[in-house]
Amino acid sequence: MNTTHSPQTIIGCIRIAFYRVLRSLTVYATVLRSLPPRARILDCACGIGIHSLALARHGYDVRGTDASAGMIAEARRRAALEGLEVEFAKCSWADLPKKFTERFDLVFVTEMRLAIAGHPKRPSPHFAGCGRC
Length: 133
Ligand SMILES: C[S@@+](CC[C@H](N)C(=O)[O-])C[C@H]1O[C@@H](n2cnc3c(N)ncnc32)[C@H](O)[C@@H]1O
Prior knowledge:
Layout: H1 7-33, E1 40-44, H2 50-57, E2 61-66, H3 69-82, E3 87-90, H4 96-99, E4 106-109, H5 114-117, E5 118-119, E6 122-123
Parallel strand pairs: 1-2, 1-4, 2-3
Antiparallel strand pairs: 5-6
The protein binds S-adenosylmethionine (SAM).
């Protein structure tokens, strides 16, 4: 498919993307500020661990899970490169309650549709029992 867009459309898209990123960063900063320094965080559907590793660099105690073995392998490789201690496990979120009996201060889910994960105020049953609050 060969589609062309006007400069106005492209600038509009860039502006929307910029404000989305800015809003996400503001939300992340607010949530993270409310946590204790060594808070336990579960990064669910962590992919290659971009957020898990960023959180570990800031001193959080992070676990990363993803349904894809390839993603988990790459996340482990990146953690090893940086010498970061993050426990990555292949786990679909339907299996989270079986995998973890421990509690987390924060369950982090990014770049996944809320329709799958559930509404923030009514989390999916898969996350039930994982969070402290
Ligand atoms: C768009 S990526 C987001 C990765 C990461 N959260 C980020 O923001 O960089 C979506 C990830 O969800 C994972 N995923 C899809 N279905 C899943 C499921 N049922 N349980 C756990 N992970 C799943 C995929 O393997 C993929 O790594």
